[in-house]
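Hmm, how's this folded?
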Amino acid sequence: MLKTFLEGHDKYYGISDILRMFYGVITEDRENTCVNAEDGPDMTLVNTLGKDGRSVTVVKESGKKYLFDGPVLEPGREVKRSLYIALTDITGQKMPWGCLSGIRPTLVASEEGSAGELTNKYLVREDKAALGFETAKEEQRLLELIPAEDLNIYVGVPFCPSRCSYCSFISQDISHHMGRLGEYGDALEKEIRTLAPHLNRRVSSLYMGGGTPTVFSDEQFGSILDCIFDNIKIDPECEVTIEAGRPDTITEKKLDAMRSHGIGRICINPQTMRDETLAKLGRHHTSADIIRAYTQAKERGFEVINMDLIAGLPYETGEDFVRSVEKLIELDPGNITVHTLYKKRRATLTREMVLGREDDRGDIDAAVREGYRLLNEAGYHPYYLYRQKDTGHGLENTGFAKGDTGCLYNVAMMSDARDVLSFGAGGMSKRCFEQEGPASKHRVERCPTVKDVLTYIGCSEEAARRKVLFFEL
């Protein structure tokens, strides 16, 4: 076991993040001011923050010291950096994003004057530094298109026709809960109708996600759209996106219902274009189904279609991922989002299947770089980016767009700089209050909705009333 003792600070969260990058499961022992890595070597480290603001990490057994010979960072970042330097030497591994462990590396990038500063200060690999810096500029441009006084709305549908093996989402398998799906739709409409009369703010963007919103029957899906548009004022300028997601749930009637409401943005998410992988993951559709749904949507005039891929899936190689990227580029959707597989808490995939570095799937890091190169060559540019804990190969999730088609809701939601009103089970509403200093710094207050679907069905009106108070509507 590797033990890391903290001296002169209490930055347990950051220390745990860095240890988790290298060793996986981490436990805090605050009584002894220590963080433990069960899978680490038998070694003791001491991570100290000095009075001069500089951090030093020392190997207790050998006395070897690790520190950064350069500008000092703020304490939370400084202690992570010295520990990261120590662990790269101990393990022989370097992470693509260096000592940046947060969800939004673009937040740090926006504070710096160049990509080189990310490499020099935070030891970020040069290609990731360039990606972070470019994406940060585009995120900020899109964010400025969303007035701070506006609302951004999320409508959540936590149901899918089947559960993918990589997912731990609260989705319900409707093969066993078809009746509950109908009740959920009714409860969702009730929440919307209860809250909508109190809305007195313009809506900049509305995103219906899940789960798979198109899992409803044609009739109930149309009813929910009618409820949204009949009760919430949606200006023609408002960006509306529907996450159709699974092509096996997309029907011509649902596409027609969306277009009749003027909706021009949808997501059709293959995750991979390899049929063998789709079957093993538990997705009940083929690549031909994806192309069918995409073609039907294009024929109906949807202006922007987003398509998701996941890099690092089990059952396929990095080369398979690159071939999926090539096939999507041939389709020419407006947006392509590349996710890297990460270990979700309740997913059936094991930690080793997600995070294992020694495997026969090839170099996933190199495959992602090649995928990005192909996307850039085809005219796509990154517009938003985030990272998740326990992501394979230390990588990230990046949304790419052609032209000015980046999704405003994605930027608003990820930025923590714009208010989001969320309907549905498991939704998280938030208010963002600007503070003095950089524009990206906001104080955020959150209002969660109960995750359990059955509980939500019985209390959706109460959830609406809580949000009326929360937003002071």
Q: What stands out?
A: The chain has two domains: 2-93, 142-466. Residues 170-175, 343-351 have pLDDT under 50 and may be disordered. The CA atoms of residues 71 and 401 lie 36 Å apart.
